[in-house]
Amino acid sequence: MHEMVKGANVGLSALSEDVDAVIVSLGWASPTGEGDADVSVLLLDGNGKVRSDADFYFYNNPVAPDGSVQLLGKAPVGEGSEDRIGFDLTAIPADVERIVVAASRHEGARFGELDDLRVTMADGSGEDLLRFAIDDAGSVSAFIFGELYRRADEWKFRAVGQGYDAGLAGLATDFGVDIDDAADDASDEASGDAVDRDAGDEVSGDGKTDGKTATSGAGSVPAAVEAAPEATLPAVPAPRTAADDVVPDKTPARPRTAKKKVTLPKAAKKSLAENESWKQARLFPVSALKSDRDRETRATSVLLSVMAQVPEFGRRLTAGFGAPAGRMETFTEVPLPHGDTPRRPDGVIRVERAGKLWTALVETKTNGNALRSDQVQAYMDIAARRGYEAVITLSNDVALEGRPLVDVKIDGRRKHKVALRHLSWAEVTHHAQLLIGHEGVGNTAHAWLLKELLHYLQHENSGCHGFQNMGSAWVPVRRGIDDETLCQGDPRALEVVESWERLIRQVSLGLGGGLGQKVLPVQRARRGTDPADRRARMADQLCAEGKLEAELRIEGTPGVLAVGADLRTGRLRTSIEVPAPEQGYPLTWAKRLVRRLAEAPADLHVETLVEEETGGPRGTLEKLRPEPADLLPRNGAKITGFRLTLIKGMGSGRGNAESGFIRSVDDAVQRFYGTVVVHLEHPAPRRAPAADGLVTG
Fold first, then answer.
1. How far is it, in rounded angstroms, from Cα 86 to Cα 316?
2. Do the bridges between strand 21-29 and strand 9-11 make them parallel or antiparallel, or are there none, so unpaired?
3. pTM of the complete model
4. What count of other Cβ atoms lies within 10 Å of the Cβ of residue 223?
5. 3-class state of residue 449 by DSSP
6. Paired strand residues for 360
7. Using CB atoms within 10 A of its CB, is residue 635 exposed (0-12), middle (13-18) or buried (19+)?
8. Mapped to the 3 state alphabet, what secondary structure does 242-289 carry?
9. Each residue of 166-205: pLDDT tens digit?
């Protein structure tokens, strides 16, 4: 991998032959597990400005209509997260000369509070190409990581590493995006006074400094880089001064930058059936599915056909695998030669773009059946010989970081590299829920197709239910904990920990799809960055204490949702810590909290968190409702927050039955969010810097 320093640049063709489509990943770690940022992309013309507001991609406008840019969302990595962006460089309009890749924080947060700030790039086969690490981001709320730019019909990457104290709105405005007044005010209030231009360097159009420095968290551009041929790039705009923020007397009319998207109505129409025994005709029936082979064949055909017919859905599932934006066709049961015995992969996906074909083989499993290494190995060999780009495995299982589901051997002597990627049925369901319930698709027919697909995936007979078995080690581990014979280092405990991590990832997908918000597992820095070491420590904790623990970060909530399973007592615990307000009186805080929880379960436990003490007053909501003052410490200790906890019995079975452990964990998280978290005072929502992002109807 090519390591870069600030100001350096490199041609992509020198790093790989497969750079028509690339994946850029912005990553960071948080010491608290709660720090996060949002990525944004700006397409710039020869003048260093966006051609229109439509060239600004962020959390409210994540996908380009032509597929050239797609924000692919976050994935947990180590103790932090990674935000990925897919670029189809063959689809970038000819009058776009630069692509700026940035990120922003909100509500006064700064990039200097994050660790391991970095940007990486991978080619179409998933091979890592370059890495740019930033170790001194500084006290800025927006940050430009790098940029892609054209030189002599070749795409290059430049490591920028420049910070913006004016936040996302200030950065976007400096690149020509029309920001509404309310967004500007909100940004300025969150980030404080505008930065004085004299406090930083102002970079001139030839890439050299004019005696000042732009606000930058990674230092100034090295002198050696200034003299490089690429120094003629238009400069990154310097932060605005207070004088630049003068609002005109009359704001011009905003142009529409996106077509209206179609989502399903929140309330279903009343059925015309005479009674509940009448069943609607379904586009994808499940009644005839009798065997695992039937389920695999039907599920593959149903999914691939919808991917081909609903461009937003097909693009969403394949962009992360390096597929370009283009005309997609899908096939099933395709015979391919392989020695003396032809192979028939479950499916084939082909995408055409500018006369070039991108091809992926698909191997599907349903009903909890495991992927077979020999099958996947054969498809990897076929793909390499035929010049295909990827092999996609699809099963109920959830892949873990650093833990492949199947072991395959890659022949390093082959020039053509094939990417091996995995999708779980839970991920497919998650993306369908986001599109039809929150983000929207192009027309009502596409929305209806996705609805039918979602009905099929969630039907009990489809076999596409996601992770649904805690594994063969579950029962002996539980027995070993009960009779205190489970010893540290027992490999069965590690199996249970891995199953627990898969379950938590699936619970996150289900909750996030229903809410239309980002829900990610949290990995604390104290647990280490190596996934294998972290799981080994969790396995030792399971042996010693009989507990499994996890945390979920839900966008828009005031804290982290903690989930714990105590296998000794057979109880599940879900909780969240709410920080104390910065102003007001403790009694007012207690009354307001109890008032907000008026519809929460009476058996909700509320505990006051006090400074420098292990615990403060506590009680059930039923007892606290008439006397909120019981939450106040008698010794007058300083209150730092409140912990809200629900406790319920857990299922014992290893499967996904009504009485199983998996179902009980999912139900506990959904119940806690729906009855407790939704009633809390959420952080102020972020105002969209551009008012004309994607619209749902």
1. 10
2. unpaired
3. 0.71
4. 10
5. helix
6. 349, 390
7. exposed
8. HHHHCCCCCCCCCCCCCCEEECCCCCCCCCCCCCCCCCCCCCCCCCCC
9. 888 888 888 998 865 434 333 433 333 333 333 333 333 3
